[in-house]
Amino acid sequence: MTAPADLIVVASTIRTLDPARPHAEAFAVRDGQIAAVGLRSEVEALRGPGTRVLELGGAVVYPGFVDVHNHHALAGRTDLFELSLPTSLTLDEVLDRVREKAATLPEDAWIIGGAIASTMLPTLANTAARLRLDEAAGGRAVMLMEDSRHNRWASSRALELAGIGPDSIPDGGVTILDEADGTPTGVLLEAAGIPVQEAYDRSGGLTAAQHRAASARGVQLANSFGITAFQDAGVSTDILGALAALDRDGDLDAWVVSSLLVNDEIFGFDPVGSPLIERGEDFRTAHHRPDFVKIFLDGVPPARTGAFLEPYVADAAHGAHFHGETTMTFDELYGWMRQVAERGLGAKVHCTGDGSARLVLDVAERLRAEGVTTPIQIAHGQFLADSDVPRLAALDVVADISPFLWFPGVIPTMLTEVLGERAEHSQPNRTLIDAGALVAGGSDWPVSESPNPLEGLQGLVTRADPLRRAPGTLWPDQAITAEEALQVFSINAAVAMGLGSETGSLEVGKSADFVVLDRDAIAGPADAIIDARVLSTWFAGREVYTAE
Predict the structure, then answer these.
(1) Is residue 1 scored above 80 in pLDDT?
(2) Residue 314, SS3 per DSSP
(3) What are phi and psi of 144, to 5 degrees?
(4) Stated pTM of the model
């Protein structure tokens, strides 16, 4: 005799994302998994005396959203322990927030936070601005991230503790010096900021309990937006330990796939590379899978650290023929990809320029010719040469896209300044889908201010700012349909991160991960998708978020 269901869910609209049965009237849950999907009369056969029946009326059910690219622990840490700064703040407003925070701290405390707008970096790159930061902080050490999370602004005390001065410039990244006096301005691009991060960590950093709290808070915030699975795009042993501990205690309310750092251009984590990869299995649990590595192959275009096939707009510092550069050669990237493939791991490769994306595809072509089937994701990939687009499908390379970053706003403004007209032709999502590529959605939160998948859905469909703050559209020919956008942030992302058999759709045998919305977001006007409200989020048949 079939055991009765623990839960039966009934709603006016249930979108399953199962091509064989895209819509259902009800589904049943037993032991955290989907036990039946279909007509209410069919599902009712599993009803027993202890079965809970969730009658949702006019509410709508989707599979739990899946985010293929975020930094949940960094977001949780910022929310709990750091100075949170919206990127809309002016320099005076940032300094006011620093001043207010400093007034609550001991004299030797650090002030850590972000994000400051990337458009503000030129204003900060001088001694006068650094001295204003020193005054606001009362001489304390300050480290503020800018919106890409690749670059930092540090105070004089932070530079001192990091050992950065006119005669001691970090080897990696770019340390911007004041043109008048030759001293470091505190604006540190890419790896140049790592010594400051390391100085903060030496001062105490976060405890193991705080790392656990940060991860738990990141998952909690993700749940509030209907997210039940995500891939963290760059983890430390502290983050790995926090996730494993949460899951062992039954407190991890999402599927998490972690990306082990091969190289570290921005975080300052230790260890990275082989020592970290060798430890990955120590942290595997039922819902936490350290199944990918993360490779930074370039930086970010606003800082001219992305690698492009054609040169950046000319400027005094770089001239007229500067393309940026990759962090690895073909042979180096191939060597790492072979090594991780032999361990059964996938690779998420950070590429913001079309030059770095081509290098990944060239390496993928060799690997596939050798019979290597390891999963490969091009992370961001907002710029691709026309001739490279069909190669993603042909080589089974996933496009990990972040529509939160390309809609009109601060980052696109900076892209235009450094790339010119090319900036108007980013994120070729329509072309990628038409070419047969697997397109998976990621927020890159907290680089984006929110991980809300509804923002991503609306941006993909309208190519406009879903928050209605900036006018205009970005390459509207590349819009995709609302149904496709929902796939991008559910089943596509699940498949991309190796969870296609576990989640991403409502099918028998999969985890009972779903989100309840107050309306069918993708059935109404495209410019109102974001107006849908998450009423509850369920993971493995448990309610993990309820709207107030």
Answers:
(1) no
(2) coil
(3) -115, 130
(4) 0.92
